Amino acid sequence: MSNPLMGFLPQNNGNNFIGLIQQFQQFKQNFKGDPKQQVQELLNSGKMTQDQLNQCTSMAQSLQNILH
Predict the structure, then answer these.
(1) Cα–Cα distance measured from residue 61 to residue 14, given in angstroms and rounded to the nearest whole number
(2) Which of 4, 22, 23, 52 is deepest in the core (most CB within 10 A)?
(3) Burial bucket for residue 48 (CB in 10 Å: 0-12, 13-18, 19+)
(4) Are the C-beta atoms of residues 37 and 53 closer than 8 Å to each other?
(5) Separation CA 28–CA 49 (nearest Å)
(6) How many CB atoms are closer than 10 A to CB 39?
(7) Claim: this prediction has a pTM higher than 0.70
(8) DSSP of 19-33, one letter per residue?
(9) Domain segments of the chain: what residues?
């Protein structure tokens, strides 16, 4: 099962950090609703597993440390 959140990442080799930040800013501006509710719906529907959520949470924390 693929991780639905990974679809937001650019499809390149990961060297375009500025592009990733710009893409995230665009996603953030266009996002509607409660993020926790959205994630819970993904878990409840089976579109995301707890392991995938843990992986995304870890990646987000790493990025947060870099950006602050």
Answers:
(1) 17
(2) 52
(3) buried
(4) no
(5) 23
(6) 16
(7) no
(8) HHHHHHHHHHHH--S
(9) 4-67
Residue 14 CB-half CA count within 13 A? 1
Both tokens assigned to 5:
């959140």
Whether residue 20 has pLDDT greater than 90: no
Tokens of 39: 């994630």
Phi-psi region of 34 (alpha: psi -120 to 50; beta: other; left: phi over 0): beta
| Token code pair at residue 2 | 């693929």
**What is d(CA 40, CA 48) in angstroms, rounded to the nearest whole number?**
9
Nearest C-alpha neighbor of 39 from the set 28, 53, 25? 53
